[in-house]
């Protein structure tokens, strides 16, 4: 039948096209007969090898055909081309031409899509382009095959925009020209960036521990700061997608901006980059999310403070890093001189000036310009027995960071096992303008500080003044209720009279004098008594002074002791013997011709008994002494200038009225005779004096600025 004939023809065609390997014939061997010789190895292996090769060739041709068919179906019209496929390994088939040449529709061979071009360099970054080591970076990349090119094309393809754009592979060398040791540090730091930014999310404590080495190197090694800044900028520019790695990069950049500033050459570029990222319009154009904009704004605020006040002195702790990343603040306690306190929040770059403003705002103090935060250190037992105060208040620069101060306090307390120091809020300087301030909080703080200084033995006074001050302080603190006491023995004299002063008389005499003065002042209210106490202390030659401990280095006269205390107020510089505190000498402001300071000393060129002498003293607070002295000099000059100007204004007004009267008398019908006079000419000498005073004031300001610049240098 036709079907059977077709099946037999197909079987014959398959047998011819794919011949089966010859099979070995089985022969029966009688017992005891000799065995037939075994066929040789080549005769058995050759047919098998030919059959296996043919099968492999057929399978390869079939796979190529199926691939071509799938490509033809998937490709759009017009995108295919006809290619010739040649297979010499396929065997010929019976009744057909050998499949030596077949036409297959295949997709043309396409190369991988090129990477997106790097973003263009900002204009500010082009100013620091000379600091990049482009040739060395390109050569190192071509040797390691980072960009998957051969040696010739890799070096030419790595341009400055490519070098400053995002990179997933580790860098072979530093971006800037550094020493070999710092280059190794820069390469390790970039590996840390990749591990933290491109890896799995870490717990806050572990993430802080990962970031801490970079911040420590930035604090200790200023030459690496620009490299770290550029590495972070590089990883934030040209990323394929704004993923979570971008937010981590900005976290590191935010921490670095709040820890150490870049160099002067790189500061404009970093500043422009942060402003661009924090701006709503430019950030949205660059594809930055809202979280990145907030981090850029915070980094910009931190960079401004760090550039102004300098880098941190200590590495940020893990606690500070975690609090900063979680948008929280740490808290410390700031005490007042009456043992009350207020909590002060602080961050990585919170300065003493910022903390002072926060304390003033918390207690409702408006005129806080003369207040600041001090470090109160406990005095040893030996100094306390000699009559010194229980605490030594060390002035803190307004540009110091609260985090550094707290780190120093805790470190010293851990090493010496001594009581921990504390922060105290008080007046930094008493000025003439304080008399016109009527703010209750200001008067209360000034009174508490004056009382604290007096009871600490800072103001040597007579017995009469001590009795008067004790009566005023009792009325100011507790009112006239103590006048009704049954016996004077209940008066707390030890709280209002210095212990070295109260030991000079019997207690009964002190009680009798203090009670008599309190009865004479019973009409005073609490506020009146406090104001009167401040006026009494202000009337002393050394009243409301700022005191500094120092040692004598050069004394041409030979009258000063080895250890002494300097007091500076609006009248001049005062010299005291420390224990027991004794007033020695006063140099008025008009007698001080010149003054200056260094890191460990201060000198005065002043007139003593009509002759100029140079005195030099050893102290670490020389800059503060000069600043206080210059402030009082400026206040005196401004006060004199205001008086001269007021007199000249009043004189000019009086002269104008005289001119108007002369004009009226010269008019027709006037009864009085005309008088000649020019008010402006009459008061010309006063205007000249005012101009001279203004000129001298400007010279004093320039000298103060020069001294401050020398002290900071």
Protein traits:
13% strand; Ubiquitin-like (UB roll); Serine Threonine Protein Phosphatase 5, Tetratricopeptide repeat; seven-stranded antiparallel beta sheet; elongated; 713 residues; 25 helices; five-stranded mixed beta sheet; alpha+beta
Structural class by sheet pairing and helices? alpha+beta
Average per-residue pLDDT, rounded, comes to: 77
Q: What would you call the shape?
A: elongated
Oligomer: single chain
**Count of helical regions:** 25
Question: How far do the termini sit from each other?
Answer: 116 Å
pLDDT < 50 stretches = 24-29, 38-49, 75-109, 662-686
Give the full name of the CATH homologous superfamily of the domain at 123-312.
Answer: MyTH4 domain
Strand content is 5-15%
CATH architecture of the domain at 123-312: Alpha Horseshoe
Q: Got a strand count?
A: 14
Kindly provide the name of the CATH class of the domain at 123-312.
Answer: Mainly Alpha
Radius of gyration: 46 Å
**Largest sheet data:** 7 strands, antiparallel
Structure description:
Among the domains are: 123-312, MyTH4 domain (Serine Threonine Protein Phosphatase 5, Tetratricopeptide repeat, Alpha Horseshoe), CATH 1.25.40.530; 329-429, Roll (Ubiquitin-like (UB roll)); 463-539, no CATH class; 546-628, PH-domain like (Roll). Helix content is 50%, strand content 13%. It is built from 25 helices and 14 strands. Strand 10 (572-577) and strand 11 (582-588) form a beta hairpin. Helix 10 (244-257) runs parallel beside helix 13 (290-309), helix 11 (267-278) runs antiparallel to helix 13 and helix 23 (622-666) packs antiparallel against helix 25. The longest helix has 45 residues, at 622-666. The chain starts with a helix and ends with a helix. Residues 693-713 have a biased composition (Basic and acidic residues).
